[in-house]
Structures are given as C-alpha cells and as structure tokens.
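Action item from last meeting closed. Structure (103 res):
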C-alpha cells in the first residue's frame, strides 16, 4: 500500500510538472501574442497618422487646384476681353487705312 501511495505521489508530481510545463508554454504564447498585438497596434497608429497627413496634404492640393482653376477662368475672361478690344482696334485701324488710301 505504501508503494501504491508512492507511485501515486510520483504520478501526481509528473502530472503537476506536465501541467506547469503546459502552463509555461501557454504563458509564453500569451506574452508573444501580446507583443505581436502591441507591435501591430503601433504599426496601425503609424499608418493612421500617415493617412491623416496624406489627407491634409490632399486637402491643400485640392485648394491649390481650385485656386488655379479660378485663376484660369479669370485669365480666359481677360483674354477674351483683350481679344475683343484687339479686333475692334484692328477693325478701326483697317478702316482708317482704307480711308487714308482713298484720299
């Protein structure tokens, strides 16, 4: 009976060691997963910061494009006005030249 108790105690000790080993393995896995999670979370924060920076840059570029489009419209209007004035002046000049030639 004493030998049975001794065998039982030894088996209990082996089971306990196996449980501790499994527990250690699981703890190491949890620590590794937490580190990977922290690393991934950090990378995500960096990516979000880059996205925000790109969004701000994009907004600035959109404003620049809008301003250039407005400037282009103004330049085209001025061009058309100047073209009309030029054609009117040219017409007057042509008439003046014809009139002088006919004298």
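Sequence:
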């Amino acid at each position: 009976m004493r030998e049975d108790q001794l065998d039982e105690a030894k088996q209990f000790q082996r089971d306990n060691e196996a449980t501790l080993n499994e527990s250690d393995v699981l703890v190491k896995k949890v620590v590794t997963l937490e580190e990977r999670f922290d690393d991934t979370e950090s990378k995500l924060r960096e990516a979000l910061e880059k996205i925000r920076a790109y969004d701000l840059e994009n907004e600035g570029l959109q404003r620049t494009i809008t301003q250039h489009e407005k400037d282009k419209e103004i330049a085209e209007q001025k061009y058309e006005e100047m073209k009309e004035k030029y054609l009117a002046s040219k017409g007057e000049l042509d008439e003046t030249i014809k009139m002088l030639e006919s004298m």
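Note appended to the action item: The mean pLDDT is 91.
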